[in-house]
Write a structure and sequence with these properties.
mainly alpha, 1 helix
């Protein structure tokens, strides 16, 4: 090999493929499947109150302040 690309007109071959062939776009479908919405099962209903004596979680830090 001389590390040169030798080409000739008409020496190529056409390879028919489908538009948006899976070989080229498979990663897009996999990403879309992973990013799709899915349901999440919860143990408690959101309208239930926490047991007495336990503080409720706040949006801020542990001291109740927001950063």
């Amino acid at each position: 090999m001389n590390n040169k690309l030798n080409v000739q007109a008409g020496a190529g071959q056409f390879v028919p493929t489908l538009p948006f062939a899976p070989i080229a776009y498979a990663s897009h479908a996999q990403k879309a499947q992973k990013m799709a919405f899915r349901s999440v099962k919860r143990d408690k209903k959101p309208d239930e109150k926490p047991p007495e004596g336990q503080p409720r979680a706040t949006a801020g830090g542990s001291d109740g302040t927001q950063s």
